[in-house]
Amino acid sequence: MPIILAIETSSELASCALLCANTLLARSSSGVRTHSQSILPMVQELLAEAGLALSDCDAIAFGAGPGSFTGVRTACGIAQGLAFGAGLPAVPVVTLAAMALACRQHSGAADVLAVLDARMGEVYWAQYRFDNTGADADACHEVVAPSLCAPGDVAPLPAATPLAACGNGFTAYAEAFAGRDFADGALADVMPHAGQVAQLARIELAFGRGVKAAEAQPLYLRNKIAFTSAERLAINAAKAGA
C-alpha cells in the first residue's frame, strides 16, 4: 500500500496525518494564525515517529477546499513545496468529502451531507454516497457537487438511506436549519481533518488522480474574498433584518 502524507488547514484546526499500510498517525493544532508555523514541525514529528523520510512517501495529499481562503492556500503551498522537493505527486482532496468520510466512520451512514461554515452568512456544502460493500467502501461518490449558498438554500437530493449530516454550519446557522429533517442529529463537531484526507488520497492515487506539484490547485467557490466597508455594512444590515 502507498504511504501518504496529508496536510489539512482549511479551518481553525490544522492537522497532518501519515497513512502507512493500516496505520494512521496524526497531529493537530488549533489557531488559524499559527497554521503556517505549525504544519512543518508536525510533519517532521510524524515522519520521525514512523521512522521514515519524506522520500519514503508515495504522495503528498492536501485539503484543497472549500474552506478558509488563506487556509487552503497554505495547505496547497506546503504540499507543493514538499512534493516538488521530494519528487512526489500531490493529491488534492475536497475538504467536504473528508468531512463526509469522518461522518460515515462515526455513524456508518451511506448517504452524507457535509455543511461547512463559509462565514459572510453562507455555507459550503456537498452530498455524498458511500458504497457499503467491497474494497472501496470508503470511496466517496459525489451526489451534489460542492456549492456555496445561504444556509436556507441547502437542498440535498433524496437519498436511498437515511441522510446523515455533519459540519459546523449546523451550529453557526442553527436558526436557518431549524426544522429541516436532515439537520436532526447532525454531527456538528465533524470538521476537515488530515486523517480522512490521507484515506481518500490513497483511493485517488489508486485511480491515477495524483498531479504534478506545480499543477496542484486549491478549490475556490467564492469569487470575491474581501468586501468594502460599505458592503460589510449592507451585509450586516441585511442579516439584522432577516
From TrEMBL:
One of its GO terms (biological process) is tRNA threonylcarbamoyladenosine modification. Keywords: Transferase. The keyword Chloroplast does not apply. Residues 33-152 form the Gcp-like domain. GO terms for cellular component: cytosol. It holds the Pfam family TsaD. GO terms for molecular function: transferase activity. The keyword Transferase applies. InterPro entries: ATPase_NBD (IPR043129), Gcp-like_dom (IPR000905), T6A_TsaB (IPR022496). This is tRNA (Adenosine(37)-N6)-threonylcarbamoyltransferase complex dimerization subunit type 1 TsaB.
